[in-house]
Each structure stands twice: as structure tokens, then as C-alpha cells.
Amino acid sequence: MKSGNINYAAIAATFFLLMISGQAQLSSTFYDSTCPNALSTIRTSIRQAVQSERRMAASLIRLHFHDCFVQGCDASILLDDAPGITSEKTAAPNDRSARGYEVIDAAKTAVENICAGVVSCADILAVAARDASAAVGGPSWTVKLGRRDSTTATRTLAESNLPSFRDSLDVLIGTFRDKGLNERDMVALSGAHTIGQARCGQFRERIYSNGTDIDAGFASTRQRQCPTSGRDDSLAPLDLVTPNSFDNNYYKNLIQRKGLLESDQVLFSGGSTDTIVTEYSNNPRTFSSDFGAAMIKMGDIEPLTGQTGIIRRICSAIN
To answer: Which cysteines are joined by disulfide bonds (predicted)?
Structure first.
């Protein structure tokens, strides 16, 4: 073939696009050469935090979740208010609720001490969620890495994109679908409520509703720490049976009408997700496997990669 028939410009353009797309792929080996001790350093930091306060495991998993559902997994939830930045920390779903920021800051400091300016806060959030789960007996999974950090945060999106404890099943399904997650992913991810606690203000209406979807004895027990008014910040475990262990009791609770939040119980209320809840209640290994797979899938939501975003030196501020 004559060289005149070869479109070298097209070949070069194709090669360039392939190279760029390759950069955009997250990889579990992303830091192997640039910061080989990053993951072990993060794991040590997270284990120490969970040993000090077991509830922190739930908080760190939730922090990653609340990050990914707003602008993608870009650590936007960690940014404080600043000129041009409206922090997501004070958005209704996060205010007095999202926590664990100081744990991520400590992990970031530890990593910066060995590899300055290399590991993103977004990746630390993703790894912390995995290590927090493992620290309380939950599943582990291979975290894909290579995310970069945002330079913006959006309180408005945090208030519209994050699911609410009052959401119906249809609304929840739509919210997760908008992020590329199906019903099975949603039910599996909801299983993170096998650990952690909720505030009285979030479940008061449910426990005083006298509804047919709540066990009367369970409601009475929860009412002792959550009166009809006041004590909004009084805490109750999302799983009354084994609140500090990552297991499948959350789903057994739902079948017994003992889901603490409205958004928990709607997963087993005569709708399309009942069969998944039943399956997970009977098969802890299936739940564990599906939870890890769903966390990996969630971690793929709109990451900043390649030349987009930055690597923040401090997670709460732009460099």
C-alpha cells in the first residue's frame, strides 16, 4: 500500500484518544509506583479510628456515599466554605449528620508525609470506606484508584441528589438509577445500615405513626429515647440486634417490620425489592458479595481523572 493511502493524521488522533481514555481508567494499581505504601498507611489510620469509636465505620462508609452522589466521587463533600465554594457539609442531608471528616484529614496527613501531592482525597475516601467495612467484620473489595479532587462543591446538589429518609421506594429507585445503580445495588448499599445510628428527628414520625408497617414493640422501644418533641439529636442504632457488627440482620429487621427509617422499611413493603431483601436475609454471603460489588460500582460515578481536577494538599480546601 502506498504511503499516500495512509491517513497518518487520523492514526495519530486515534492513538491520542486511546492514550487519553487509558488515563481516564481507574485502576487498583494506580499508586503502585508513585506511592506504594499509600493503602497500608490509610488502612492503619482507619483501623485506629474505628478502634477508638466503632460507630466511625458507618460514618466513613456514609461519607463516601454522600460524596459520590453529588458531582461524582470527587471529595467535594470535604470542602469548607470559601470564596466561590458553598460547602456541602451544611446541606440538609449532611448537617449534624455526616461525620468523620477529621478521620479523613488524619489519613491524608499520614499519606502526605510519605508521598506529598500524590494521593487524592477522593481516593482516600474510597479506600477508607472499604477499610472501615473490613474493620467491623464486613466485606472487603478491591478499590479502583486514580480519582482526582474537585475544586468546587455544591450545597444545592447535595440537597437535591442525596436520598432522604422520607423517600418512597419509587423515589429511591429513581435516585439510584440516575447514578447508574440498579435496584439490587440500592438494596445492597442500604445494607450499610446494619451498623451506625440515626437521630431521633429522622425516625420520630415513623415510630409514632401507629402504622401497619412497624412492629409495635419495636416502636415502643424506640420511643423511650425519642419523645414526641425535643431530643432531636438523641441517637438510636439502625440495627437494634447487632448494631456494631456488619452482618445481614438489617434485612431480617425489615422483614419483621423493624426498619428504623422510612427509607429502610420501604425496601420491604410489598414492592419490587421485597425478594432482594428476603434473599439477603437468608444468604449473608450473597449480601456481602453484592455489597462489595455495589461499592465498586458506586465508586465509578463520574470520577475526575487524567488532567481534570487536582490533588488537594488539605482535603477541606483548594490548594
So the answer is: 35-115, 68-73, 121-315, 200-226
239 is in an annotated binding site: yes
Q: What is the pTM of this model?
A: 0.89
Would you call 235 helix, strand, or coil by DSSP?
strand
Looking at the DSSP assignment, which residues form a beta bridge with residue 236?
A: 198
> Rounded to an integer, what distance in angstroms lies between the CA atom of residue 314 and that of residue 66?
19
Query: What SS3 class is residue 85?
Result: strand
The answer to whether 271 is annotated as binding is no
Spatial separation of the C-alpha atoms in residues 172 and 132, rounded to whole Å: 25
Name the residues annotated as catalytic. 66
Rounded-to-integer distance, Cα 83 and Cα 54, Å: 36
CA distance 189 to 185: 6
Residue 135 has pLDDT above 80, yes or no: yes
Rounded distance between C-alpha atoms, residue 304 and residue 315, angstroms: 15
CA angle, 95 then 101 then 105, to 5°: 155
Quick: pLDDT tens for 24-65. 589 999 999 999 999 999 999 999 999 999 999 999 999 999
Q: Would the annotation count 242 as a binding residue?
A: yes
